[in-house]
Design brief:
Asp_decarboxylase_pyridox (chains A, B); alpha/beta; pyridoxal phosphate (chains A, B); four-stranded antiparallel beta sheet; carboxy-lyase activity (chains A, B); homodimer
Chain lengths: 550, 550
């Protein structure tokens, strides 16, 4: 009904969009119904498979002025369906196994709508009321998942105004920045004759404590958000030190020690050691206990970036992979990754609930002293009540539900790894520890040759293989039946040559083994079309004398 | 249907929540229907009016462990309705005029559900596709609203990979931090023998350029997020300099000049001057043109925090209030404030599309060099497709629709100001420039006395009046019929004595004059109950010899 009444500018018409609901038989009403009754069907029907070139999509989003006149809701919705939804990414498709986004449980959609309708602002109690204790509760549960303190601990701290077990935020990047912000402010804390880095700034802090620079240490496979953090916090990207990894993409403690000693010898100070709890590219986990030991030894903040791997703590079977995470000073976990919550549910947790005092802020009109306003201890100000969706997911699925999803995803990754290893013309590059793995296409003949190639030969062959992998990944994505992502690694088995690989994340519970077989089949078909790239590879092989006599 | 099938842990049961929709007659199905058909009715029915004490609400959110077993969706939903929704804040009520959140247009709710169902991640094209040009389009339209460049400008820059007209983010705080991050990195940019602050850090930057410190200048009424920004960026809160304001809460240019000269004389460098485009507390706007002149004179970055006031640019009638904003290097605008979009739609805009190069980040697996991935130029990483809601609101309401809403809101504020001024026992403290105003309750006798009181007498009376204002505001909020917020100002007319005031924001288009009258009536009734506070005020009056002879 209302959708036809607007599109004229009068106060009366305008008020109607605030007071008259969309009719069930309106375009939007029908969309809602479709979403509610058959989300996958809706997405499958409306998202076109074959990829439209970006520059063509841009044509539809080229107007530079806010449109002068209003538009009918129905017309606008049609536009969105044809030009936005049609060319969005089917992130929940079980054949799209290249992202960390997955299918969502149905019940979260109506709850998300409820959240938007309530439109709470979590910065302060005044605009969020019960959402504030709810968010603190979610942080408490996640804190317990990591740190497993007893009930009295949570009774004491969970709802304490001056404390916080963590902070919810839009995503892992803000979570990592927040953790390192806290670490920086704690290290350069107020002291005799110094008001602290929060008040006086970083240069004054370094000077007061006599440090030439601060550094953040992380493996070479650390997430790029740490580089943003180093930049934002004034530490400098050069002072984010990338430590070499072993053949399973885990930080090498001997190299870490070497690097930290060098920092100290040069008059610097290690601010933080960051352990990776599931690298974004391969899902490998650093030796967290060893990192905790070493961080304690040199008095550095120990942060674990478990944005991806954190959910694994729900599994009795695989929890041990993250042993040592409970010794971290702070931990990042994204609920919108393997906790199956929609985008926008990042979290950082703090072992010690008083740590957040280091970043406490107050104002007259909000987050007054003594209030329980969440805004006092978060980097963000106004933000939505996403905590409700995390809370609901935790309750409806329960720890045992999550455990099952996580165990199944890791098992599936192991099966896929076996499947790949069994192919003549594919090669597993990194085996799954969590539900991530990487692999590439290598023609059988080349595979045989590579096994006995010397470093120089590997160096010359790799760019050709990289080009073929890139070609396959791009073409497969454009075709739109399935999607794997790609990245570049430096595998030990290939003498650290930069190697382009397919990257697969098997978090979607709806992905079947048949679908995985089809992904390989399609890649093989595309590879067969890469005539000129394969020709170049063949020529290189011949020049290297690696062609089997035929 | 599905809501009854879960609550047992088997793979089959678990998969059902991903594949079986909620039945229309389920608890969640009914909620959806209610939300779709009668949002205000739903909120009015489910949010209890009388406020429940926070500590009682906390009892329901005290469990510290992730529940072990799954729970029926219906049971969980009932729990949410009774314990969360019931005690949330009715932010869209037209009688709740103390927040910057307002009623939402109906069409945004189903669209929000669509956005969640699509679950795009805007960090990269790979997980957002058409959402990326759409977001760039929204930034372009807002950029045009502020800077009004010609079509060729937008054609050239809007979709350019290496450029960005701004950044969307969760809210104004992140927007302000991003703007100042860019400013800091531009000032301490790479030069001969220096790789730039982004790479080497803040201390090295200050040393290279020979500055003792950086400062950010803003009026005393600047938003507290700037203090967070100064802290996060390593500049230090003490280096956020609060400049005195005139009797309309606008920065005093003479005082600004004085403060900046002092910074320079001490070897510091003014990084940025921040103009306030609608103070949070009173809605006043700094003289932006004068600030632009002065910022240019001393070579400082000029940022305008128009988180609240930015939407006013839609109004031909009131746009002039922000004259000079088009000379800002960067501008913050929150679409979840007076642009009537749900929480989570902050934005920062940059005059020069190449400024964001100062904070550019890349990685192997996302935001590769040359890609149009938005994550290369934002502080946040993964984040949701909120831009779709802004885009839709801009199209369905159009500039002229917004103009009407904004004009009406300011007119309504002026009417309310007149209404207050006409009362014997209320007093307007700040008149509306935008749709914000502040006032307080002052018994008639005291009002008369105050008019001729000397500074010392004002000083002694004010705490009593403050206590009464606090009492009324708190009681009115608890009663739950209506809500105004409160803050503390230092009004020139009261010799800068800290004065507690009611703060009103009239953005909700559904608020009527009758409702405003009722708000005053209710406050008057509550004031009548504040016997002991009024007694103390009376005693003070007598001691001061201010009681009219009777």
């Amino acid at each position: 009904m209302s959708e036809q009444v607007f599109a004229e500018v009068s106060e009366e018409a305008l008020l109607k969009i605030f007071t008259l609901p969309e009719a069930p038989d309106s375009t939007l009403g029908k969309i809602e119904k479709d979403l509610s009754e058959n989300l996958m069907g809706f997405l499958g029907e409306h998202i076109v498979a074959r990829e439209k070139p970006l520059h063509e999509i841009e044509h539809n989003f080229a107007a530079s002025e806010v449109p002068e006149q209003p538009r009918y809701v129905s017309d606008h919705t049609e536009f969105l369906l044809n030009n936005l939804v049609a060319h969005s990414v089917h992130t929940s498709s079980p054949r799209f196994i290249g992202h960390m986004t997955s299918a969502l449980p149905y019940f979260l959609l109506p709850l998300a709508k409820l959240m938007v309708g309530l439109n709470q602002n979590l910065v302060k109690i005044e605009t969020s009321k019960a959402f504030t204790p709810l968010e603190r509760n979610v942080l408490g549960m996640l804190h317990h998942l990591v740190y497993q303190q007893d009930a009295s601990f949570y009774q004491r701290w969970m709802h304490s105004a001056q404390h916080s077990l963590g902070a919810m935020c839009s995503g892992g990047t803000v979570a990592n920045i927040t953790a390192l912000w806290v670490a920086r402010n704690l290290l350069l804390k107020p002291a005799q004759g110094f008001a602290g880095v929060a008040a006086e700034g970083l240069a004054a802090g370094l000077q007061h404590y006599g440090y030439k620079r601060l550094t953040i240490m992380v493996s070479e496979r650390g997430h790029y958000s740490l580089s943003k953090a180093a930049d934002v916090l004034g530490i400098g990207r050069q002072n984010l030190v990338g430590v070499p990894t072993d053949d399973r993409n885990r930080i090498r403690i001997d190299k870490l020690r070497e690097a930290c000693e060098k920092v100290a010898a040069d008059g610097g100070r290690v601010l933080a050691i960051v352990g990776v709890g599931g690298t974004t590219e391969t899902g490998h986990i650093d030796p967290l206990n060893e990192l905790a030991d070493y961080a304690a030894e040199i008095g550095a903040h120990f942060h674990v970036d478990a944005a991806w791997g954190g959910a694994t703590l729900m599994s009795d079977k695989y929890r041990h992979l993250l042993d040592g995470v409970e010794r971290a000073d702070s931990v990042t976990i994204d609920a919108h990754k393997q906790m199956y919550v929609p985008m926008g549910a990042g979290m950082v947790l703090f072992r010690d609930p008083s740590m957040v005092r280091a970043i406490e802020h107050h104002a007259e009109y909000v987050i007054r002293h003594g209030s329980k306003d969440l805004g006092a201890h978060t980097m963000e100000g106004s933000r939505p009540g996403m905590a409700m969706l995390v809370y609901s997911a935790l309750h409806v699925m329960g720890r045992r539900g999550y455990e099952l999803l996580i165990d199944k995803s890791i098992d599936k990754a192991k099966q896929f790894a076996e499947l790949i290893a069994a192919q003549d013309d594919f090669e597993l590059v990194t085996a799954p520890e969590l539900c991530l793995l990487t692999y590439r296409f290598v023609p059988q003949q080349v595979k045989v040759a590579l096994a006995q190639a010397n470093p120089e030969q590997v160096k010359r062959l790799t760019p050709h293989l990289n080009a073929i992998t890139r070609f396959i990944q791009k073409r497969q994505r454009e075709t739109g039946r399935s999607f794997v992502s790609r990245t570049k690694l430096n595998p030990a088995q290939y003498h650290r040559e930069p190697t382009v690989v397919f990257r697969v994340v098997l978090a979607n519970p709806l992905t079947t083994t048949e679908m995985l077989q089809e992904v390989l089949e399609e890649q093989r078909e595309i590879a067969a079309q890469a005539m000129s790239l394969r020709g170049a590879l063949h020529t290189e092989m011949r020049e290297l004398g690696l062609l089997a006599r035929s």
